[in-house]
Every structure is written in structure tokens, then in C-alpha cells.
Amino acid sequence: MLQASRDAGPLPTTPPEDLGSLRLQLGSLPTEHVSTGYADLDLRSTSDLVAAMNAENAGVAEAVALAAPAITEAVDGIADRLARGGRLLYIGAGTAGRLGILDASECPPTFGTDPSLVVGIIAGGSAAVTTAIENVEDDGPQGAADLAAHGVGHLDVVVGISASGRTPYACGAVNAARAAGALTIAITSNPDSPLAASAEIAIEVLTGPELVAGSTRLKAGTAQKLVLNMLSTLSMVRLGKTYGNIMIDLVATNEKLRARSQRTVMRVTGCSAEEAVGALAGSGGSVKTAVLMLLTSATKPEADDRLARHHGNLRAALTAATAGAGAAGPDAPLDGAGTALTS
């Protein structure tokens, strides 16, 4: 869910002497380096450009893999806090803020979460989602104020996102979150950054110089998206929001998702299409309630009660209800001519 900071207003201009210091700082960052291999980029054919950009992107997943220990620690920390009633808040400016909003907004339909559970905060307000408002990233106190406005506390997790690792807005937010007792995580694309030093868990995905020098919406942005996918998705897996690798908590808000709900029930239980439709109607559209009703012959109130007693975890509810009676697992075949679940 999007939570925007205050609308962007004019900020004081950085004095020229401070810009000299900033130039030196930026010059030391790998993400700001100019790759000598692309000095003729504007002279190349389109096919060469496509090949060059794809070759650069190929290294992003490798860079993410090197950060796997920190990502693992972050996922476990997030799952623990969410299980105890906390929230996950992403905060950043520009591309980083937009990617946080994107990931947060996709959690409710995918995992059936309340929009307040995973929140994206962007510097500059809602207008900054679609329009570049670059000056707001320099306002560290506003980052702290935006966190304070959300009442961040010790059960929450705050993820500061910044390719450079020095964005004042993100640093201000993470420092405020840590002071409030929240678990703090940094996602950066440069080593040994101020943001990483401020956070308890530093996820440093070192993507290096960009194809277009300094355009960190490219490899650095792709790395941020990959890491955010991991943090939200794998935390939800740890919380029982999937059954095997199936979206058991999806919210069917359109025809495609309603069809997927039916196919999911068929996949997990091995029932017919007609039985899946009937069970979903009887469950009020809840996939996991429908599955539990079919596999345990429970009524909707009984199934809902069992799920509630196991914190919504279908596998735990099934295990308790069947006591080893052999409930169908996630590899149960689809009925008739059905095929594996697809997007």
C-alpha cells in the first residue's frame, strides 16, 4: 500500500562548497563510475545496444546471489516481526521509493494481506510516483518525520532503499526507525555506505557501473526489485501464505484470478471443476477454506475456526484435522484435462 510523504516543496539550495564535497563522494561510488567499454554507445546499432544491455543485466542475479546471507537474515527477521503483529515498511526516493510501493501494493492480492501490513513510502508525496521530484531526496529530517507519522515501533521492520546508499531521505528514515526499536534493513548497490551502516541488516548488491553512467534505475533498480521480491514473497511463505508453491491466499478480484482460484482448489484437492466451484461458493471465495472443507468434510464455520486456531496456516490446519489421514498435497493432479497452474 502506498503511503506518501508530504507534497514536495522547495528545499534550500546546496552551497557550492558543499557540492564540491558531494562531487568527490559521488566519484567514489561504483554505481556512478563511467564504464570505458561503452564510450561509443550512441554510435552502436540497435541490435548491439540490446545485446549490451542484456549482457549487463545478466550479472544482476549473480550480484544478488552474493548477498544471499543478508537476504536470508532479513527474511527471517521480517517473518518473525510480522508473525508478532508488526508491519513491513519500505521507504526511499525516486526509483527506490517507486519499487517499494510496487512491491507493497502487490501483497494484498497475492497473499490476502491487509493493505496496512506492507507499506511503501516515497519521498515527495503521491505525485512523486509518476513524476520525478528529485530535490526531496536531500531532506533527511523529512524521512524521519514520515516514519514518525506511521507510529513505527519495535514490532515493525523498516527497509531503506537507495542505490547510492547515501540518500539523506532514506538515511534519516532508517535512523529514526532504529531509534524507535524497529528492525532496520538497508538495500544498496555500493559497499560500506552510510545507509548500510545505519541499518542492522545491510543487503549490499554490488551491481557496478551502469550502461548509461549513473542511471541507477537500470541494474541497481533491477537488483532492488529482485531483493524486494524475495523479502515480501519469502516472508509470506514463512508465514504460511502459500501451500507448497501455490498462492493459497490469493484474492480473486478479476476473472483470471477467479479461474485461478478454481484451478488451485482442483490442484490441491484433486476435485472436479464443479466441486471446486461449489466449494468456493460455500467458502465465500476463500481458497484455503474451500480446500479445508473439501479435504476434511468440514463446514465453513468449522474450517474457518480451524484456520483461525492455526493462524491461517492451511498446512498446519490440515495436519491437525486429518491427523495423518493422508490429505492431498500440493502435487495432487488436476481434474480431467487440466494442466499445471500458469500465470
Please characterize this protein's 3D structure.
The protein is α/β, with parallel strands linked by helices and 343 residues long. It has 15 helices and six strands. It has a six-stranded parallel beta sheet, with helices on both faces. β4, α8 and β5 form a beta-alpha-beta unit. It is globular, with a radius of gyration of 23 Å.
In short:
The chain is α/β, with parallel strands linked by helices and 343 residues long. The protein has 15 helices and six strands.
β-strand amount? 5-15%
| Average predicted confidence as pLDDT | 87
The biggest beta sheet, please? 6 strands, parallel
Indicate the low-confidence ranges by residue numbers.
4-14, 324-343
Q: How many alpha or pi helices? A: 15
> How helix-rich are the residues, as a percent range?
40-55%
Q: Which radius of gyration do the C-alpha atoms yield? A: 23 Å
Shape annotation = globular
- What is the CA–CA distance across the termini? 23 Å
Class by SSE composition: alpha/beta
- The H/E string reads EHHHHEHHEHEHEHEHHHHHH
How would you write the strand order of the largest sheet? 1-3-2-4-5-6
**Total number of β-strand segments?**
6
